[in-house]
Design brief:
- The chain is α/β, with parallel strands linked by helices and about 400 residues long.
- Helix content is about 45%, strand content about 15%.
- Strands 7-6-8-9-10-11-12 form a seven-stranded mixed beta sheet, with helices on both faces. The protein has a five-stranded parallel beta sheet with strand order 2-3-4-1-5.
- A hairpin with a 2-residue loop joins strand 9 and strand 10.
- Helix 15 crosses helix 16.
- The chain is globular.
- The chain starts with a helix and ends in an 8-residue tail after the last strand.
């Protein structure tokens, strides 16, 4: 297997040559790299491969490879890793696209159990495949979910504007102070730029047209390549499901439902329901449960959004402002761990987080705090600084940690 290892190392060498260590995602320093088994998850395009390669470049005695490489498939993941461990004293393995290898759960478990001195970092598009895989494997793996660039990260990477993160509690308590201080650092158009193109790191180096073309291909691959690895779909269903993003981008979220999407696409409602569930786990779609009364929470009706504002511009040249506002807000709230976001009757959003409940209304200048009960936060997209103690500019939520 020495010949095959040489080929893998040659591929790795070429990849590492193009990796820069001057530009790190914030996630890089938030990950606990000391874990013996680490899974890095997130949707396509957020920078998982780059981060694995950066860590590999910093690591002596390591090896990076993609699990869908034909050599790995023919020789076997476990046998290949075991051979490198025993014969070449390789102790750090960085395995990309783990879900593209058949029976990866069992072989990865074998690697973890049989090679106690090894550290294995692997990546994939969705942690759901891990949760639905081998229970014993899940107990052995530390998992980290990676998101796209936040507005705060974008300001640093694009304009070298360095501003601190905020917890939700800090933001709501001191938003008047923060909105004034932070807004002095950047121009108003930067937030519009970010919403249109800069959620994905690869957008930083591309023209808008090139970015749109690449993101279209990225989202198409999610449907055609990623979904079948998580669950079996018929080819005909995948072809039709590729229209899903278009209809979500061109329909007001309040008018969207699983049934309406199935009718627009021309595919069985259960297939659409299943695809929406899986895509929400990957992160390219967000669903927020709707209910009018507490007793109706058992009903599974959702407000459906694309995963971030950039995706709307792929399928709609001029997405509605109301939709973009809500899509941005939902994406930021979904990043909060152990939180629940719902759409109750009479409110835009209700967030349950760390034992507290928050009511949010999202809108523009016409939103008036006097129209809503005490304790409601008004989030506006067309203001630069907070108007009073209850009215917050939307862009400030791009600083949440």
């Amino acid at each position: 297997m020495n010949k095959e290892l040489n080929i893998i190392q040659s591929i790795e060498k070429d990849l590492l040559r193009g990796v820069e260590l001057s530009f790190y995602r914030e996630d890089f320093k938030n990950i606990d790299w000391s874990n013996n088994a680490l899974g890095v998850f997130g949707e396509r395009g957020v920078g998982k491969t780059t981060m694995l390669l950066q860590k590999r470049k910093e690591t002596e005695g390591g090896l990076y490879f993609s699990a869908d490489n034909s050599i790995i498939r023919s020789k076997g993941l476990f046998l290949f890793v075991h051979y490198c461990y025993d014969n070449f004293d390789i102790r750090h393995f960085f395995i990309d696209e783990i879900f593209r290898y058949n029976h990866w759960q069992q072989e990865l478990k074998n690697c973890i159990d049989s090679l106690p001195g090894a550290k294995i970092v692997f990546s994939g598009s969705s942690s759901m495949a891990l949760y639905d895989g081998v229970v014993d494997l899940w107990r052995r793996v530390y998992d980290y979910h990676m998101n796209g660039l936040s507005f705060r990260e974008y300001l640093f990477f694009k304009y070298r504007i360095s501003l601190p993160r905020l917890t939700l509690e800090e933001l709501l308590k001191n938003h008047q102070k923060y909105s004034v201080a932070y807004s002095l650092e950047f121009k108003e158009r930067y937030f519009e730029e970010y919403c249109k193109q800069w959620v994905y790191p690869f957008g930083l180096t591309l023209s808008f047209d090139s970015f749109i073309n690449r993101l279209i291909k990225t989202l198409d691959r999610v449907i055609i390549e990623d979904l079948p690895y998580i669950q079996d779909f018929r080819v005909q269903s995948l072809d039709k499901l590729s229209k899903l993003f278009y209809f979500i981008a061109n329909t007001t979220p309040s008018e969207l439902s699983i049934l309406s999407l199935s009718q627009k696409i021309g595919i069985d409602k259960n297939v659409v329901d299943n695809a929406i569930f899986l895509l929400s786990k990957i992160g390219v779609i967000h669903t927020v449960q709707k209910w009018e009364k507490l007793s109706e929470k058992v009903r599974k009706e959702f407000k459906i959004f694309l995963g971030n504002t950039n995706q709307y511009f792929v399928y709609n040249n001029n997405p509605p402002t109301d939709t973009l506002r809500e899509a941005f807000f939902v994406n930021e709230m979904k990043k909060l761990k152990n939180s629940t976001l719902t759409v109750p009757g009479g409110k835009d959003f209700w967030l349950q987080y760390q034992g507290a409940m928050y009511f949010f209304e999202i809108g523009g200048t016409r939103k008036n705090i006097s129209h809503y009960p005490l304790g409601t936060w008004i989030i506006k997209d067309d203001i630069r600084v907070s108007e009073n103690s209850q009215i917050i500019p939307l862009w400030l939520f791009g600083f949440l940690s």
